[in-house]
Amino acid sequence: MQLDAKIPSGPIQDKWDKHRFELKLVNPANKRKYDIIVVGTGLAGGAAAATLAELGYNVKNFCIQDSPRRAHSIAAQGGINAAKNYQNDGDSIWRLFYDTVKGGDFRAREANVYRLAQVSRNIIDQGVAQGIPFAREYGGQLANRSFGGAQVSRTFYARGQTGQQLLLGAYASLSRQIAAGKVKMYPRREMLDLVIVDGKARGIVTRNLVNGEIEKYAAHAVVMATGGYGNVFFLSTNAMNCNVNAAYRCYRKGAFFGNPCYTQIHPTCIPVHGDYQSKLTLMSESLRNDGRVWVPKNPGDKRAPGEIPDSERFYYLEEKYPSFGNLVPRDVASRNAKEQCDNGRGVGETGLAVYLDFRDAIERDGQDVIAKKYGNLFQMYEKITAQDPYQVPMMIYPAVHYTMGGLWVDYNLMTTVPGLFATGECNFSDHGANRLGASALMQGLADGYFVIPYTIGGYLAGESMTPVTTDHPAFQDSMGQVKERVGKLMSINGKRTVDDFHKALGHIMWEYCGMARNNDGLEKARGMIQELRAEFWENALVPGETENVNQSLEKAGRVADFLEFAEMMVIDARHRQESCGGHFNEAFQTEEGEALRDDENYCYVAAWEDRGPGEDPVLHKEPLEFEHVKLTQRSYK
Amino acid sequence: MTSKAINLTLKVWRQNGRKDKGRFEEYKANNISTDMSFLEMLDVVNEELTLSGQDPIAFDSDCREGICGQCGCVVDGHPHGHEKGTTLCQLHMRHFEDGDTVVIEPFRARAFKVLKDLMIDRSAMDGIIQAGGFVSVNAGGAPDANAIPISQEIAEKAMDAAQCIGCGACVAACPNASAMLFTSAKISHLALLPQGKPEAARRALSMIREMDALGFGNCSNERECEAECPKEISIVNIARANREFLKAGFFSSVM
Questions:
Q1: pTM as predicted
Q2: Fewer C-beta neighbours within 10 Å, C or N terminus of chain B?
């Protein structure tokens, strides 16, 4: 199968306008004849569900949490980028486009990124109109701050809770449509299969997490907005319920999976401190605006940070990257932290941490100013670590945070399965091999509010749809398979808990497919994953009942899919014989230890096709062409 | 971070579904690191229950960063436990003493239903938002974001109200099981901003009426909500919502 990204022709500035004009429209009176399923209620899903309903479609919206307001977009802290140039500091759509392509280490599709930069402005307008209380200057204008990978201030924020406020904005719009009867909301549902009829996505099968019932829903199109797969590492900054199930089930039903090995390790998280730990907590990247990252110059220096004089501190980011300093992109900051710790300069009990120090900022601006900017983050840090970051430097270490890989989509955000769309983190599209800070919120909302509402209309208007109800045999088949799988999980009756398997998988992935990778390690990891998966189906212990609340069963299904998905990640990482952004193969680095790309051989999107259990996935390549941002070695010096 | 290990006795509410009457059961939580969060302590207990062939304790949680609002139980009589301004996922075991007995039960209110053990149905809170907790604006066509200046003071006040996480602790804390702090936070947030003003009267009436209809109690100024709110939302919001409600009643035609 030849991948067709369906990038419109013409100059990049005009592609989206031209495409919107060329897309067929659904007559307003006909929109109510179409049902659309949206899975997920985060920024992408919530915005898409609300907007599609505003247009007149009938929307069925699903989430695994108890309310659509809980989706993990809510935890995003620092902010959202938009090319508003309110600061008059030289920003433009072109610059945001350029920064994003470069930040992604030239592995994103130019046309998509340009569109993202274009609609970024509308998102802020929309948010303000919804009543989102963004931070303001004294004059009443919107405030901005700077973020990693950019030299302009284009990040809008609401204290350290920007994701929360944007999500509650989308949730408010969604609630309005629920009240209007245009969205039917299905909380506490987990999508366990995609239903395909005549080659098109026509519905889903879910498990009701309250009574265990397996349910089926039909529609004319299905929109996935199910987030990322960072929890394959067990420990990540993702919420407990984040998983790959729904996206993986789409892959098994024919949707190609793009670049699964591109995972983002965020540089500023609270370090790991024990085996029992259930998740890692991010400290917003915005802290790097005022915090200075350092380690002791002398390896093994165990003095308290306050006793180490400036002359014996190594501000390694500022020294190595004078023009970006502490604001280098995330992949660069993370790798440098690992390098310092590998060289014995790590601090704290485990030696796996570096300092993020606010001493100078507090001296310069006063504690009040710093508290206003980051108060809630400092408070969160203190709650977790029992240390006061106003007095002693924070300790931070990189942690798994975001996954750039996801379901392959064309310019219309449609996967390789007609009628199946993917938005937000669960698609692969806009961030290339590394996402810049404050861009996830931008992409989720761009997809949901301003892209999918147009492109889905183009699809529906162009297709002749046969009526399909849930009585169709394809639904029966799918339900049968889901029930069989649930039954199988419940009947293993082994001796090892599902969490224990998940932790073991996480160790393998962090060790061999984490911040730095090599061919031997990846091959070893593949074998270990296969062994662990075999043991899982022999020895997992899933207590409780099938037809009741059963969180162990939910986890078991998710871990079972992670155990398959992890292998695909490793295969993808092994195949890509270069380093780029979040994928760092130790064999491919510059003399200074930066990621070394091989544009001759790997300037493409790797889209993997499923060939069934036990078979290796098949690689398809979408070549990437860079007409506007010249392919160069990234430099932040 | 100096961690130590403590041993606790837990008295946990177990209820197998809506129809079950429910009862407290006692469990030992041994060798608990004081660096653990409360929910990680429950994870450890659940691993042991699973391995010993018992049903693990069902409880909700998601982000475990104190922002999603999905977690929450009553711990020793306090929603989210005794630490001020803290969600249960951010409550750490260093705040407990070796040998403590800890009583854990679900948030209880007429408008909430226990689904299993500590897990509850709070969808009534979504119902209150659906009654008007929004600005009626469609995507597309919004004016430039800087077109209407909003003073920093107003934006900050709106943000103070908007940071409610919708966890339901205020309802669980209130002797009347009223959702007035939750409802008023949303009414306040939107009434403070120019974008929310056109619908302020209708919103206040509609949301408060819906709150009553969904089985939440009345506010009688007990102030327990404010004391237990993990985000320290102020009852000033209730006064502000009451003003909006009265104004709507006296002066407008939306009754």
A1: 0.97
A2: C
The average pLDDT across A51-60 equals 98
Count of other CB atoms within 10 angstroms of residue A10:
11
The encoded tokens of residue B227 equal 């004391």
Residue A379 lies in a domain: yes
Question: Which residues in chain A touch residue B49, judged by CB atoms under 8 angstroms apart?
Answer: 543
Q: Which of A30-39, A184-193, A331-340, A467-476 has the lowest mean pLDDT?
A: A331-340
By C-alpha distance, the chain A residue nearest B118 is A549
For residues A44-70, average pLDDT? 98
Same domain, B41 and B87: yes
Distances (CA, A) of A223 to A24, A112, A213, B178: 19, 18, 22, 37
Mean pLDDT of A174-187: 98
Pair type for strands B101-105 and B5-14: parallel
B71: CATH: 3.10.20.30
Angle CA(A452)–CA(A454)–CA(A459) in degrees, nearest 5? Answer: 85
Q: From CA B241, how far away is CA B164, in angstroms rounded? A: 15
A213 min Cα distance to partner chain B (Å): 14
What gap in Å lies between CA A433 and CA A448, rounded to an integer? Answer: 22
Catalytic residue check, A202: no
Q: Which residues of A touch B60 (CB under 8 A)?
A: 66
B63/A128 Cβ within 8 A? no
| B69 and B156 both lie in a single domain | no
Q: Does A177 lie in the same domain as A71?
A: yes
CA nearest B67 in A: which residue? A75
Give the one of A210, A348, A383 whose C-beta lies nearest to B92's C-beta. A383
CA distance B132 to chain A (A): 7
Cα separation, A179 vs A182, whole angstroms = 8
Residues B55-100: pLDDT tens digits?
999 999 999 999 999 999 999 999 999 999 999 999 999 999 999 9
B3, B64, B138 member nearest A240 (Cβ): B64
Yes or no, beta carbons of B33 and A276 under 8 Å apart? yes
DSSP A626: -
pLDDT in tens, B193-241: 999 999 999 999 999 999 999 999 999 999 999 999 999 999 999 999 9
Contacts of A383 in chain B (CB under 8 A): 66, 86, 90, 92
Q: Which residue has tokens 């960072």?
A: A230
Q: Which domain holds residue B191?
A: 123-137+149-251
- B196 closest CB neighbour out of A131, A179, A453: A131
Q: Cβ separation of B62 and A385 shorter than 8 Å?
A: no
Domain region containing A380: 266-401
CA A421, CA A412: separation in Å to the nearest integer? 8
Task: Give the integer Cα–Cα distance in Å for B155 and B194.
Answer: 10
Over residues A455-468, the pLDDT tens digits come to 999 999 999 889 99
* Marked catalytic residue, from A207, A249, A330, A597: A330
Chain A CA closest to residue B94: A386
Q: Hey, are the CB atoms on B35 and A274 less than 8 Å from each other?
A: yes
| Distance between CA atoms of residues A97 and A106, nearest Å | 12
Pair (B77, B184) in one structural domain: no
Q: Per-residue pLDDT averaged across B34-47, rounded?
A: 97
Residues of B in contact with A450 (CB under 8 A): 139-140
Mind telling me how many Å the CA of B138 is from chain A's nearest CA? Answer: 6
In this prediction, the answer to ipTM > 0.95 reads yes
| Structure confidence at residue A635 (pLDDT) | 83
At residue A374, the pLDDT reads: 86
pLDDT tens digit string along B98-137?
999 999 999 999 999 999 999 999 999 999 999 999 999 9
For residue B248, is pLDDT > 90? no
Helix (H) or strand (E) holding A73: none
Whole-number average pLDDT of chain A: 96
Q: What's the pLDDT score for residue A372?
A: 83
Asked if A178 lies within 8 A of B162 by C-beta distance, the reply is no
